[in-house]
Amino acid sequence: MSGLTLTLKSPPAQRLNFAQITPEKLKGLSEREIAAISVGVIREPVLLGDVFNIVMGDVDNIRIAGSSDRVDHVGWGMSAGAITVEGPTGAYSGCNLSGGSLTIKGDAGPWAGSGQSGGKIEITGHAGDSAGGALPGAASGMRGGVLIVRGKVGARAGDRMRRGLLMIEAKAGDYLGASMIAGTIVAMQGAGVYPGYLMNRGTIILDGGAGELPPGFMDCGPQELVVMRLMAKAIAPLNKQLAGRFAAPVRRYAGDMAAFGGGEIVAFEALR
């Protein structure tokens, strides 16, 4: 049985909240009940069936065709199943995702993967600010799982990240991994200024340099780290080219000494 397919009729006149459109929340609902789900965010009511054509199928595998950057909260809190979006999404994609997979074949707005604790999110385009970072008022950002961005990310990706893997295949913005608590961030084409600013623990792996390193990082010199070979095995299923790069010599910077100082930036070239 093929999956449930939602096809956008025309560009939405307002932002849409897709927090209720997840496999677990649609399970057991009829086509009429799914079409009647409210997705509007202002006074004028908007139902899912008003803006999307619905073709019923297995709700454990949802396909959103012709999406819009006005569609927010895609995959919010999902714990199982799969959602594939053919097009861009707005803010909060995959927030609080604990299981299953979310694939966005396009760009994603800010706070993609915020609060993620499991599962896998893949964004084939670019992501906005705070990808894998903390929502306003939240104690931490990503808490587990895998978040892959094939393009660039904005500022503060991995902000207050506690656990998990954030992999960025193009350049990361400023303050990558700021106030990081734990976890691993890989930026394959470098980062902007102050990566790891006030990080406590965790690892940031940089290939391509950084705009400016925070002053609280200590240069530990060139090293051959066994952990890099172990990480290469874990990374290989996600990106074989990157896994091969992990065999190269690295330079380690410990910090941020302005905070707890138990973190590290591992770079393939000198950052100072």
Describe the structure using short key phrases.
Pectate Lyase C-like, two-stranded parallel sheet, mainly beta, elongated, 272 residues, 13-stranded mixed sheet
How would you sum up this structure, described in words?
- The chain has 272 residues and is mainly β.
- It has one domain: Pectate Lyase C-like, CATH 2.160.20.
- It is built from five helices and 17 strands.
- The chain has helices at residues 23-26, 31-35, 48-51, 226-235, 240-245, and strands at 3-8, 16-17, 52-55, 58-65, 71-72, 82-86, 101-104, 117-123, 143-149, 163-168, 184-187, 191-193, 203-206, 210-212, 218-223, 250-255, 263-267.
- A 13-stranded mixed sheet has the order 3-1-4-6-7-8-9-10-11-13-17-16-15. It has a two-stranded parallel sheet with strand order 2-5.
- Strand 16 and strand 17 (263-267) form a beta hairpin.
- The longest helix has 10 residues, at 226-235.
- The mean pLDDT is 95.
Helix content: 10-25%
- What name is given to the CATH topology? Pectate Lyase C-like
Number of contiguous helices: 5
The residue ranges in which pLDDT falls below 50 over 5 or more consecutive positions are none
Please state the structural category.
Answer: mainly beta
Order of helices and strands: EEHHHEEEEEEEEEEEEEHHEE
